[in-house]
Amino acid sequence: MFDSAVRKSAASVSLRKQREIFAFAEKERIELADALAHFGKSLDDLVYEHSRKQVWSGGVPRSLEDFRGAQHHIPMVSFFTGCGGIDLGFEAAGFEHVAAFEFNELFCKTLRKNRPKWKVFGPPSDAGDVSKVSEVIAALEPIISINFEGIFAGGPPCQPFSIASNQRFSKSGTNFKRVGFEHERNGNLLFDYVSIIKYFRPACFLIENVPGLRDLDGGEQLSAAIKDLRKTGYEVEMPTVLNAADYNVPQFRARLFVVGTRTNRSIIFPTPDEIQYGAGSVLLQKQGQAPNTETRSHKLGSVQRYARLDYGQRDQLGRVDRLSPCRPSKTVIAGGTNGGGRSHLHPEIPRTLSVRECARLQTFPDNYTFVGPTARQFTQVGNAVPPVLAAQLGLSLTRSVFGVS
């Protein structure tokens, strides 16, 4: 299916015609978009100088729908929900969504737009702030009971622990060091989350983060949190890193998971798949009528540089990489708190990816809409746990912790 799609797009413009369009834009001193329009073409009609040398022919990865089964209705509460990656995966795995706590109003808008029946605690109606432990407890007490027979899931903001985040700052700046738990706000959110877990004592809890959390301060901080939870009566599995590419996600993305239970059952993580899916498995199909498909209107010079790249090569000036259709994508990047991430370059079109294409690499359904400015849409997508990975984790916990087959 995708092989024919690539061949069809190859007929849209030749390299000779492409060079003619570039020369016309330079001669007339007009934007590339205007030159393309003059020739009845669009950015998506352009090609790389080295194109179609690699063609993905391995089919499509499993979608979120493939993991839907019997609805066991085990209740779930999520914290630091973001745009809902973990929640969507657990929903597909049969969990009943009870409540979500999210501090960012824009992310709350995305959650409410896509899942209007979910109870989302966050702006403008609520703070959604997990650091306000007493407020979170007061909000949950009318909904759930102590010794909650469900699961708490959440990933405290990971930027203080992320090497990629560290690289964005100047060495002379106060944010350069991986300050972790010394961070004035985000660094303490893990322990706020632990306090809420200890209060309600859910049957199972999930902590998600970047692998850097495990090594921060020699592992002392995470160890302290785990020790605290074990004192409360939890069996806590050792921190486990899963690479999304091993679980039907067409993207290399390593995430750390800590799972604890008071059910006296063994915790079993999902089994890796033998097949890894290339980025072409989801990027070589047209975006169609899905939302969030807008692409950047690149300058002529940028596209000319991109067009010279081979698979896997980086444009050093723009710091973007051309993806290979036959290998999982590099990690989709969220960007900083004040802006969106840089998207990678499409395998066969010399442009950066759209939000929708990044969402496909993250395994979000095409009908899931991200709201807000495009830069903030990238932030939402890049911050999320891939829903398909979350679904497999949810199914494993359903069987191993809750004893539901």
What does this structure look like?
It is a single chain. The chain has 2 domains: 2-58 and 292-358, no CATH class; 67-275 and 383-400, Vaccinia Virus protein VP39 (Rossmann fold, 3-Layer(aba) Sandwich). Helices cover 32% and strands 10% of the residues. Strands 1, 2, 3, 4, 5, 6, 7 and 8 form an 8-stranded mixed beta sheet that branches. The chain has a two-stranded antiparallel ribbon with strand order 9-10. The protein has 405 residues and is an alpha/beta fold.
Provide key terms for this protein.
405 residues; alpha/beta; Rossmann fold; 2 domains; two-stranded antiparallel ribbon; 15 helices; 10% strand; disordered N terminus
